[in-house]
Amino acid sequence: MIHFDAVTLFPEMFDAITRSGVTRRAFEGQFYELVLWNPRDFSTNAYRSVDDRPYGGGPGMVMMPEPLEKALKAARQRQRSSGVKESKVVYFTPQGRPLDHALVVELGQHEGMILLAGRYEGVDERLIARQVDYEVSIGDYVLSGGELPAMVLMDALIRQLPGVLGAADSAEQDSFVNGLLDCPHYTRPEVYEGLAVPDVLLSGHHAQIRRWRLAQSLGRTWARRPELLANRVLSEEESVLLKEYRENHS
Description:
CATH architecture of the largest domain: 3-Layer(aba) Sandwich
Shape: elongated
CATH superfamily of the largest domain: SPOUT methyltransferase, trefoil knot domain
Number of helices: 10
Radius of gyration: 22 Å
Low-confidence stretches: none
Strand content: 15-25%
Structural class: alpha/beta
CATH topology of the largest domain: Alpha/beta knot
Distance between the termini: 48 Å
Mean pLDDT: 95
CATH class of the largest domain: Alpha Beta
Largest sheet: 5 strands, parallel
């Protein structure tokens, strides 16, 4: 089980995780738990304020460190009481480490995670220095807050848990697990609007199907995301298949 605590001004947004699809079934099956903390509950003023103007001027507001730190400490304490020995705090920011499959696997080694979803212009840097273990980015763009990135990470982690997906090898065959883009997929009918399913997929020859799918993954990665191949050491089979793909698509 993974223990998630999320610090967020909009806890209702996380209904998208616990009430829909695979993550709903995993939540009901107790593969993970999720506890939500609103930093306004830890504010010390009558207005329950959690933000203020930035020092040095400029537009927007910055989240104050004290309510957030209190919420994070409460989440750590709750996880300890649930038997979690060590919790990691993840803060979502464009300045963070890009979220990829390798980082998902790394984060999946921790049984307790506290997800800090910032808002406004961000959070006070001193809070990050004192409390945050991982800064994570889901892309080079700006969102209104960290809730959506938090749910992206949760979804990626939950589907890796043994027993969550229907087929035992579903997660292992996901795109990016082996560092490549996914191959094309087809289902019924055999011919749709004049376009037919590739013959090899109808052959029943499992070895040929495996080679075709690997060749397609290599070729798509070369054509669409060549940087993924830059640091990848190809096997002899992969080198041959990629060469054939490039020659056939020159």
